[in-house]
């Protein structure tokens, strides 16, 4: 199939707003379903795809995908560092076997793949906010289980049941679902506080407009403030950057609805295209408190797991007073 986008452009990156043509796929993606569309094209060509999925213990791990069903395990955000294991060695073998390979991951992971596989691999990176450690996320899941009294068997960082945004949800073995509660929102609070990311993330050399991948994908946050505002809907829109001729060709073949955009329009909603994540306050204090007092105490002390009264807030208190006055 020929690309629908001219591939003679020489100035990269080329920036697009993108939607998967399947609304069902977008519903189960964090943003516009770009990963699934790119992965589908590689599988259709007889290639293999590497992406990040949760394993049975809710650990973020990279898996090798031979079918689109395998690839769909990798849809959705994973807000902790993924475990590569033998992924790079397996990619090398796939390349030697003449297989077309698509690798998706954080920019630092993509750079690792690039350094050992200069040919035969198409790479897709994300606009990365930074990652907490897998041990920290495992500790978080155990905390949830201790509060609920049941194993957590499913975790979604960005489900779409409440629209395109960030409303974390988890389910227990007994079928109970938790969303928009103090428990379910605590990891999001910790993540965006930025003080519990990997130390290297604060000096990330890849947080730049100059990408090292063939394609970059992200949420197109702030699209409503651009000329493409009408393209936004509740199912989400991806920001997609073609960074090479190979990336542009694959993007043109993928089953997505594309709108040309500009880096200038994309930057306000994706500041990690210009700088690494930053934090306010004493980072060491959070970690010292964790090691000395435990995970739950740390969450409470730094308001990642606020008290019921704090979550209710002054607005709720005023409303309650009005109701009591009749």
Explain what this protein looks like in three dimensions.
This protein has two domains: 14-127 and 206-273, no CATH class; 134-196 and 281-324, no CATH class. Helices cover 36% and strands 18% of the residues. The protein has twelve helices and eleven strands. It has helices at residues 23-27, 34-44, 68-71, 87-96, 107-116, 134-148, 182-193, 245-253, 263-266, 283-293, 295-301, 308-325, and strands at residues 14-20, 48-54, 60-65, 101-105, 121-126, 152-156, 169-172, 177-179, 215-219, 238-242, 256-260. Strands 3-2-4-5-9-10-1-11 form an eight-stranded mixed beta sheet, with helices on both faces. The chain has a three-stranded antiparallel beta sheet with strand order 6-7-8, covered by helices on one side. It is globular. The mean pLDDT is 93.
């Amino acid at each position: 199939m020929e690309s629908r986008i001219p591939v003679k452009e020489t100035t990269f990156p080329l920036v697009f707003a993108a939607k998967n043509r399947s609304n069902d796929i977008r519903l189960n993606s964090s943003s516009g379903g770009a990963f699934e569309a790119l992965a589908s094209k590689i599988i259709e060509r007889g290639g293999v795809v590497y992406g990040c999925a949760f394993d049975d213990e809710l650990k973020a791990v990279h898996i090798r995908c031979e079918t689109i069903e395998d690839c769909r395990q990798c849809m959705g955000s994973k807000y902790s560092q993924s475990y590569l294991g033998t992924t790079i060695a397996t990619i090398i073998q796939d390349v030697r076997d003449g297989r077309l390979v698509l690798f998706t991951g954080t920019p630092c992971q993509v750079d690792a793949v690039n350094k050992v596989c200069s040919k035969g691999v198409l790479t897709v990176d994300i606009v990365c906010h930074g990652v907490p450690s897998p041990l920290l996320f495992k500790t978080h899941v155990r905390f949830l289980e201790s509060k609920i009294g049941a194993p957590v068997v499913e975790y979604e960082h960005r489900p779409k049941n409440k629209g395109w945004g960030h409303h974390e949800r988890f389910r227990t073995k007994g079928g109970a679902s938790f969303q928009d509660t103090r428990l379910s929102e605590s990891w999001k609070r910790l993540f965006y506080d930025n003080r519990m990311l990997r130390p290297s993330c604060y000096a990330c050399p890849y947080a730049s407009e100059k990408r090292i991948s063939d394609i970059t994908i992200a949420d197109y946050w702030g699209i409503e403030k651009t000329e493409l505002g009408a393209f936004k809907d509740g199912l989400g829109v991806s920001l997609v950057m073609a960074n090479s001729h190979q990336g542009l060709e694959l993007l043109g073949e993928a089953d997505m609805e594309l709108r040309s955009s500009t880096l200038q329009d994309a930057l306000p909603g994706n500041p990690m295209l210009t700088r690494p994540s930053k934090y306010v306050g004493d980072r060491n204090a959070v970690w010292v408190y964790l090691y000395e007092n435990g995970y739950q105490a740390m969450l409470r002390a730094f308001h990642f797991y606020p008290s019921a009264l704090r979550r209710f807030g002054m607005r709720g208190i005023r409303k309650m007073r009005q109701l009591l006055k009749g």
